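Give me the fold.
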Amino acid sequence: MTAFQAIAKVGAAARDALRRTALAVFRPIAVFVKDAGHGLLEVCHNSLALLGLGVVAASLFLAGRPELRETLELRALGWLQVRQDLRTEADPNVTVALAEPGAIERVTAADPSSLTRQQAAIAQWLSRRYRVAPEPVSRLVQEAWEAGRRAKLDPTLILAVIAIESRFNPFAQSPVGAQGLMQVMTRVHDEKYENFGGSLAALDPLANLRVGVQILKEAIDRTGSIEGGLKHYVGAANLPTDGGYALKVLSEQSHLLRISGGRQLTLLAPQAEALPLPSIPADDSPSTRPEPAEGPVGVEGTPSPLGRDLAVPDTRSLSLWRPAPAASAAERRQLASSR
């Protein structure tokens, strides 16, 4: 045997010894890992089974306890909202931090193209006359048609009342507490707002319109005429006259009827009617000339009781007398409610 063969034989023996040593060392480890893996799989399988059984049992329990289910839902929703607030507070973008995708559902607006030709003509004219966006006016026109159909009232009458009462300002309020589009006395008719969630609904355009239409219908049914109903509506039932309120509403309605019929009207902003001047006697002596009334007389450059300058010639050289202005609609409502 040569020296090379002897060395090869020794190397082979060493490799066999090393392999046997490795097997002796790592075999227990492999067996342990294998057994641990099988055990973990069994535990996970059993845990998932137990978890599934727990979910089923909890679902059955909550199905019979609606109050407990609602409490858990509210707590979960509150936790999610807190997490959302914490995440958005650090965002400098206000539109992102205060984003509210559901805001579109609160908007009182409609696409003008969805209206009929008659409704669209009225909505366009009202939008231009009262300087209101066409989309909310279109929605109010739609609602006036629907409410008028249910109450058996002409929708143009409803829109005319809105125009005279609030000029299509849904947040208008009079000194005596009449609120909204149709200037409903909220404290008097608060029970009518119960179906809309409370008296604050008076400032919701659609709720105010529906309540106002109901009040107007009751007033017309009570008096048997539109003129009488308007007199009751404005709060002048116990007064000799309504101060021209019904005439203003019916005049506005006539404009709307002509617009709906295809007529073209000159667009003018609503103006106060000029008060007629009495005839002046020829004798200008102090003994026959009437005494001037106290307060502003409404001549050019002098504020009138109606809140704007009247189209009256300059008569500063004359001492003119005229009757006191009629009570406003708000004052008539206050007087009627006090009675």
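The beta strands are 178-179, 184-185.
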